[in-house]
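Its record is retained below.
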Amino acid sequence: RIDMQLFLSAFRDTVEFANPEYLMAIPIAFLLSVFGVLIFILRVFLRPAKTHGSLYPLVGHIKFWFFAVVVLVAVAAAAARPYWVYGGRTFKRGDVDVAIVVDGSASMWVKDLGPSRLDLAVREALNLYTEEILTPGDRTALFVFGTTAVRKAHLSSDSDRFVEQVGRVEVPVTLTGDAFPWDSDIASAFEHVYQSIDNQDKFESQSDDWTPERRSDRLVLLFTDGDFVGSRDQMARLDTALSEFQRRGLTVYPIGIGSRTGTNLDIVLQDYIRGIDYDESLEADLKGLRTQLSADGLDMLQQRTGGRSFVLESPGVSSAPFVRNAVNSHRSISFQLVPAEDKQEMWQWVLAFAVVIFVVAVLFY
């Protein structure tokens, strides 16, 4: 029984049909064969008593019926166009979880590279799918931070939902009453990342005694300009958050976006109307403040978590190759049987078998 199960499993994995609807004739052939067996049994019981010189063949002319049933099965199988799928052992990479963290603070609105830094961050985040860096089974989560951090999408393999949420990350229409963009609390962002993932893991485990575990199939991609010099309290919280990252095996790969040449931060107000889209006092608050790509913050993050950083200083450059290498470095590698692309059609051989059976039936009729 076990050998038969193995045979059927191997058959399903290596033989496929282009037109499987023709296989519906096989159950009909089975019923016809059952009908033939019943007729054969009935004829045996209804035969006259055997006398001297009489000759009763074992099967008789009804054998042509059974030959016809076999031919029907073979023709139906040939019409279904079976083909053999070549298989071989090869390496297959495992799935990964990727937490995307996007800096949504006001410094990311600066257009020192042509498009705004935020637009470039969105473009690079979308490259995860447009460049096919992620594959089915991979999960992504999206976090956006400024003064606080907000989770836009939890870890999920739903690529459409992730793309939709990333596409909504943009500069606000008005700045009135909005405190979110005027700080870059990276500590709050990282706290939100590991706590959110912990909550999801705990929920999925359905265990009351769940505790965080170190994993190698997860990483964090941070899109920022690195301009997040915080207070002493923020730096202390950041240090604690990075320790929690290390405990869970979360590696940070910062992608720095912007120019190393300083730019006045109040330039972001030129796309808004004074007195309508923002208070006049805001212009005074931003006057004299400058923003630039800061590699020091990126280096600190990669060193603390064992990651690597990438700097995007031109809109014509893409971080996709860097991100692809980072993601693939967290994929486990397994050795298993996977179907190859080569396929060999078999219908000719099945049809030839049907012709042979038909010829044999005619010869023995």
